[in-house]
Design goal:
CATH superfamily of the largest domain: Ribonuclease H-like superfamily/Ribonuclease H
Shape: elongated
Number of domains: 4
Strand order of the largest sheet: 3-2-1-4-5
Helix content: 25-40%
Number of strands: 15
């Protein structure tokens, strides 16, 4: 059932940091059953000057707010207007962050349910790339006025919400709203402030238990949202329940984007070995299949270990298996599926017809019924889908990833499928490129990079050829 009472709210502020900056204007529209009940707005004296940039953006100057009430003077009235209602804002994390900070300074707890129309737009209209308020106004013909003023933006947010209600079925809307409004149950030993301080940006998050023991490392393009999902009611079974009971502290590390988060998560899980992470833990050894050229009787498959191998040693390897037994099973499946001959492959000693030929599971290469070149071709063709990729570049490459939320830029450096490091400055990039020793092959780095290369047309990241002269470290 779709709720019937909302307060659409927007704030103007002196900046973007809720702990350092202050509110300069509040605007809200209270809506009941789709009908506007009341509009309310006020300027707020932030107790500090407003920068020329903010003044140009919003039209609100230091002089305009000089005689306005301070937040503490209007806090009670605002709290009463918001209490018990669902707050709706565009990029609600920003607005609620400032409200909670302002109320916290006055020792007033503020925990109202919040709905974000930015997230709603992404859920309802995933075919569109841009979901900021300007994009919504243009795309849906909202005809907004007083852009970048609190009441004007609150009205635009309400108009967008009404547009969604007209265009979409109640079931779709209710499902999208419940996804955001589902009740959270915070871990019993975790202060609520730790959740509130999490950023809505890409990166990794770390759960710690008693004695600061590392419990879990995860990654997301929205750290705050992902952490909240761990403690929502529909995720409370099994691992989620155990984590909730054990977690005492949450830490986070922001990255420029998803690729950086994937790489950092893989490295931290291997370095820290959290007890609730299993998929990315360090693999003791990996195994592949290699074909050894025979003299006159075709290639012989061999199971080889990756221990000590570097990325440059992957040429001629097929498949990645986490144990020798898994590799042997994989090879056996190929042989059975293709009707290959164990004796010709050197896996069955003896002469004459092999056992599989006698039970009609071999096409007869062992007795001359199938020509050896044809048997060889079928073997190579069957393994082709498992072939490890050759390094497609002449030297190291960088993937430049830019944050969509700020001016952060990271360059992830790879050479021969190995992640050498991530640079956030020219000095750090030179340090990484000057390291002469190749790193051991890492399965997770290989998978992350191959996935990126296969889908790079859909990515905003840039691929840099770090073997070019402008990146020369001078080390020869």
């Amino acid at each position: 059932m779709i709720p019937d009472r909302f307060v659409f709210i927007d704030l103007e502020t002196t900046g973007t940091n809720a702990s350092r900056d202050r509110i300069t204007e509040v605007g809200l529209c209270e809506v009941l059953n789709g009908e506007l009940v009341e509009e309310w707005s006020t300027l707020v004296n932030p107790g500090k000057s407003i920068s020329p940039f903010i003044e140009q953006l919003t039209g609100i100057s230091t002089a305009m707010v000089a005689e306005a009430p301070r937040f503490e003077d209007l806090a009670d009235e605002l709290f009463d207007r918001l209490r018990g209602k669902i707050l709706v804002a565009h990029n609600a994390r920003f607005d609620t962050g400032f409200l909670k900070s302002e109320f916290r300074r006055l020792d007033i707890p503020f925990q109202e349910k919040t709905l974000c129309t930015l997230k709603l737009s992404r859920t309802i209209y995933p075919q569109h790339r841009r979901h900021n308020l300007d994009a919504l106004i243009e795309r849906h013909g909202l005809g907004a006025q007083d852009r970048h003023r609190a009441l004007g933006d609150a009205r635009a947010t309400w108009k967008f919400f009404e547009k969604v209600r007209l265009e979409q079925s109640p079931d779709i809307i209710e499902k999208a709203l419940q996804k955001q409004l589902k009740k959270q149950s915070l871990p019993p030993h975790l202060p609520a402030e730790q959740i509130e301080q999490l950023p809505s940006s890409a990166g990794v998050y770390l759960f710690y238990g008693e004695n600061d023991a590392i419990l879990y490392v995860g990654k997301s393009i929205d750290i705050r949202s992902r952490v909240n999902s761990h403690f929502s009611e529909d995720h409370r079974a099994h691992k989620g329940m155990r984590l909730s009971q054990q977690v005492r502290r949450i830490d986070f590390i922001e990255t420029a984007g998803e690729l950086g988060a994937l790489l950092l998560e893989a490295r931290l899980v291997k370095d820290m070995t959290p007890i609730h992470n299993r998929r990315l833990r360090r693999t003791r050894d990996l195994f592949s299949i290699r074909l050894l050229a025979g003299k006159n009787d075709g290639s012989k498959p061999q199971i080889v270990s990756h221990r000590g191998l570097c990325g440059e040693d992957l040429e001629g390897l097929f498949g990645l298996f986490r144990s020798r037994r898994k590799a042997e099973e994989g090879l056996r499946d190929i042989i059975q599926d293709q009707g290959l001959c164990n004796r010709v492959l050197g896996l069955d000693k003896g002469t004459g017809a092999c056992f599989n030929y006698q039970i009609r599971k071999c096409r007869g290469a062992c007795v001359g019924k199938e020509p050896l070149p044809l048997h060889e071709a079928r073997l190579v063709n069957a393994l082709a889908a498992l072939k490890m990729r050759s390094w497609p570049f002449s030297g190291p490459v960088g993937i430049r990833e830019r944050s969509r939320k700020d001016d952060r830029t990271d360059i992830h450096v790879f050479d021969r499928w190995c992640h050498l490091g991530t640079a956030d400055s020219e000095d750090r990039l030179r340090d990484i490129l000057s390291c002469p020793s190749p790193l051991p092959f890492d399965l997770d780095s290989y998978k992350i990079l191959t996935r990126f290369l296969d889908s790079r047309d859909d990515s905003d990241a840039d691929l840099l050829d770090l073997s070019q002269p402008q990146y020369n470290t001078g080390t020869g």
